[in-house]
Structures are given as C-alpha cells and as structure tokens.
Amino acid sequence: MGIGDKMKNAAEEAKGKAKEAAGDATDDRDLQAEGQVDQAKANVKQAGEDAKDAWKDATDG
Q: pTM surpassing 0.85?
C-alpha cells in the first residue's frame, strides 16, 4: 500500500473524529453519527489495504 493511501485513510478517520466531537459538543446526533460513519469507512478501507499488503507479502517469495 502506498503512503498516500495510508495518509488518506488517516485523514478520513481524523475528519470523522472531529465531526463526532463537534456533534458531542453541540448535542447534534446527526453530526455524531456522520463522524462515526466516516471513521468506520476509513477503518474498512484500511483493513482492505492491510489485506492486500498481507496477500502481496505472502505471495512474494
């Protein structure tokens, strides 16, 4: 996985955490939920990239 993909996933997760925190601070449940969804998307993308890396490492050899 490229460093760019890692940075994009980390940025998306950070954005989600910020949205969730803003929602917590303002009692905005929609914003909280949106932040949680952003974090979940980033985590799923990261898991997919990790699986690709593991497959590549297992088949290199």
A: no
18-27 burial, b at 16+ Cβ within 10 Å, e below that, comes to ebbeebeeee
Q: Are 17 and 35 in contact (CB under 8 A)?
A: yes
pLDDT tens for the chain, 61 residues: list them. Answer: 577 888 899 999 999 999 999 999 999 999 999 999 999 999 999 998 889 888 988 988 5
CA distance 11 to 26: 22
Alpha helices per DSSP H over 1-61: 3-26, 29-59
| C-alpha to C-alpha distance for 5 and 61, rounded to whole angstroms | 24
